[in-house]
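Page 42, continued from yesterday. The earlier attempt failed because a stray header line got pasted into the input along with the sequence. Redoing it now with the clean sequence only.
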Amino acid sequence: MTPDLVAELLRQLMKEAMILAAPLLIAAALLSFLLSLIQTLTSLQEQSLTSVPRLAAVALILLVGMPWFLGRMAAYTRLLLTDFHRYLG
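This time it went through. Structure tokens are written below.
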């Protein structure tokens, strides 16, 4: 396996990881920003007010998006396994 091939594999892997993680990270960041804004405006400093909704939002996104997540991962795995002969020789 050449260094160029390794670099290409790692590039594809990082691209897929970013695509799969983006919905969760964006939702958690936006929700954290909104909850922090609400906490600042109302002067509430309870930590569970930010943790519980963020965890619930991430769990909901995982539950709703699971078919898409699994489809992307399965397609990437199929791509790797169909091109397996390139990596061996």
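Notes: The CA atoms of residues 32 and 51 lie 9 Å apart.
Reminder to self: strip header lines before submitting.
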